[in-house]
């Protein structure tokens, strides 16, 4: 597994506990027994992972990470010899994980083309959540994967999202600068915290005020796990239909109303400026209309 920019600068044991959904004792035992290596060398539990590093996990359950191909249609916005831009639908998990071994975007991608190497998330330069829709970059080889990851780290790729949040935001723009880390009471959740956290910055602007809801555009300066969802909850405007950070009562079974709508970058090989937009899904538009 290759470390993405949103996962760097944390201890390897904490990363693997979350990533593999294993117990702390199991992960520490694997590390102690030499079953965990980073870029080909053994490490200790307190080793800090960095973007681009490759972690190998070997034990008697290694076959769990074999990726099967999945035959589903992909909405490909752009493709060349180096990478793809995918419009991911809401409800599709990006890469294999516990409970989703064979029904993810990665399973479909490996049937479509060759991808950069990784145990269980080949090609995935950055992630979006299962119920978040929209634009996602996928690398076809290790060289381009590293270049794209470094561009995200260096803030050379612009990513914008459309979100519907509860409540009326009165000011037209804002910036949320609050560090995000693992929730100390629930390791499956993220939270604004000073404990084992990383800097996180989200800029937003109001697009439309509706009936007790606000349609906003968010621009990521950093790319932490669940960043927009956590930040909007933190300032008191949680995303509509968010099952983790939103109100308990949902509008319907559709996921959080968060869509990756815009992506721009300078092609790391050709130098061409590329800009992509992606309209929100009809299901999301229907819910927005309910609040109008």
What do these coordinates show?
With 292 residues, the protein is an alpha+beta fold. It folds into 3 domains: 60 residues, RNA-binding S4 domain (Structural Genomics Hypothetical 15.5 Kd Protein In mrcA-pckA Intergenic Region, Chain A, Roll); 88 residues, Pseudouridine synthase (2-Layer Sandwich); 138 residues, Pseudouridine synthase (2-Layer Sandwich). The protein is 19% helix and 26% strand. The chain contains 6 helices and 14 strands. A hairpin with a 6-residue loop joins strand 13 and strand 14. The longest helix is centred in the middle third of the chain and has 12 residues. The radius of gyration is 19 Å and the shape is globular.
Mean pLDDT: 89
Give the tally of structural domains. 3
Instruction: Supply the number of helical segments.
Output: 6
User: What would you report as the Rg, rounded to the nearest angstrom?
Assistant: 19 Å
Q: Which architecture name of the largest domain does CATH use? A: 2-Layer Sandwich
Large-scale geometry:
globular
Spans of 5+ residues with little confidence (pLDDT < 50)?
Answer: 60-64
CATH class of the largest domain: Alpha Beta
| Major sheet attributes | 9 strands, mixed
Q: Report the span from N to C terminus.
A: 44 Å
The tally of beta strands, per DSSP, is: 14
CATH superfamily of the largest domain: Pseudouridine synthase
The helix/strand series, from N terminus to C terminus, equals HHEEEEEHEHEEEEEEHEEH
Q: Structural class of the helix and strand makeup?
A: alpha+beta
Q: Provide the CATH topology of the largest domain.
A: Pseudouridine synthase
Roughly how much helix do the residues carry, as a percent range? 10-25%
């Amino acid at each position: 597994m290759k470390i993405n920019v949103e996962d760097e600068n944390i201890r390897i044991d904490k990363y693997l506990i979350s990533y593999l959904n294993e117990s702390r004792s199991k992960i520490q035992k694997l590390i102690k027994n030499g079953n965990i290596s980073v870029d080909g060398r053994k490490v200790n539990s307190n080793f800090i992972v960095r973007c681009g590093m490759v972690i190998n996990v070997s034990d008697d359950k290694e076959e769990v990470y074999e990726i099967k191909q999945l035959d589903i249609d992909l909405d490909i916005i752009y493709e060349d010899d180096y990478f793809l831009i995918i419009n991911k639908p809401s409800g599709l998990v990006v890469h294999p994980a516990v409970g989703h071994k064979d029904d993810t975007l990665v399973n479909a991608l490996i049937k479509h083309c060759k991808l950069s190497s990784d145990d269980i998330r080949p090609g995935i330069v950055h992630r979006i959540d299962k119920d978040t829709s929209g634009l996602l970059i996928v690398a076809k080889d290790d060289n381009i994967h590293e270049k794209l990851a470094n561009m995200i780290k260096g803030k050379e790729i612009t990513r914008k999202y459309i979100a519907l949040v509860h409540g009326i935001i009165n000011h037209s723009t804002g910036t949320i600068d609050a560090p995000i880390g693992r929730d100390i009471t629930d390791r499956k959740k993220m939270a604004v915290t000073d404990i084992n956290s990383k800097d996180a910055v989200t800029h937003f602007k109001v697009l439309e005020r509706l009936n007790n809801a606000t349609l906003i555009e968010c621009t990521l300066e950093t790319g932490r796990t669940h960043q927009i969802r956590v930040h909007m909850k933190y300032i008191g405007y949680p995303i509509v239909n968010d099952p983790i950070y939103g109100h308990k009562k949902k509008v319907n079974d559709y996921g959080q109303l968060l869509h990756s709508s815009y992506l721009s970058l300078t092609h790391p090989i050709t130098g061409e400026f590329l800009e992509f937009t992606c309209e929100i899904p009809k299901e999301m538009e229907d819910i927005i209309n309910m609040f109008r």
